[in-house]
Amino acid sequence: MFKDQLILLLESQGEDVLHLMMQANSLRQTDEITYSKNVFLPLTNICRNECGYCTFRRNPEDDDATLVMPPPEVMATIHQADEYGCREALFTFGEQADVTPEVEHALKKLGYSGMLEYLYDLCERTLNETNLLPHSNPGILEKDELKMLREVNASMGLMLETTSKRLMDTPAHEKSPGKDPQLRIKTIENAGKLKIPFTTGLLIGIGETVEERVESLLEIRRIQDKYGHIQEIIIQNFRTKPGIKMEDHSEPSLLEMIRMVATTKILFPDCSVQVPPNLNQDSAQIFLMAGADDWGGISPLTRDYVNPEAPWPELDELNKLTRQLGFYLKERLPVYPPYLTKEFLSNRIQEKLI
Description:
Number of helices: 12
Structural class: alpha/beta
Helix content: 25-40%
Radius of gyration: 19 Å
Distance between the termini: 40 Å
Order of helices and strands: HHEHEHHEHEHEHEHEHEHEH
Strand content: 5-15%
Largest sheet: 9 strands, parallel
């Protein structure tokens, strides 16, 4: 689709919004709505970025800073998740946290030269000791770093958030060098070159225009057309929170989000579309009606450390919300079925799945 057509979709009004939702729903391949039963593992909350909407990041001197989550704690949590029947170990941490001397020192005390070496070891132990499959979100990476982590990850992810360079001069990203769109695009493209099943997405309502939303969607479409590795697109709405720099910034309206979700599904019939249910407790069903087909990761054990104020819905509640619309809830792995191939999975991950 052309840019002008997409802008018209994102500016739909009245009955046109209903037609947009119907068009998105007509692209469904199945009545199944998927989710991943996971465990959330925040290895550190130190981060080189200071995004205007983030409550996750801490400074090393903060009382609640986690320089490095110790290996016994990580593995005990993963083993507990294994007992709960979880299949995804979601590893995340602040971007390039090990450039901070305190984090670097903590890692060296544990015997690691950096966060990626530590992450690799934890992913490998997860594969060796449990039934869980690692999915890592380590921020922007070089191609050789992605290649290394591919060996022990079933899938990986990085939110593009936006292609707008303009937002680098706004409260959203002015102190966040890692949010430079070109750096994030390069990481997503390199993941494509390496055939890594990948999750990306956009953050809606951080100051971007409708035109910039379209440009962001078209950039993901360009990458997907070239490499075909994007299995899932998250459309996440900005939520205001006490204490963040953007506390007084307005949130995107429900209508904006409906338009965005439906337009994404129309542009990406080959990808799953997810809207985080814990950020949209009262409107989650509406997004299913707008073309969303995945609830994302739901943990019976750990909270969403990036959005701690928003608890995960219980699986029974999620099943109820899904069935009320005539859909069926189905658990999935962190890697989607079309990517369960030798082309997209390392030998180590293939052995685990067999």
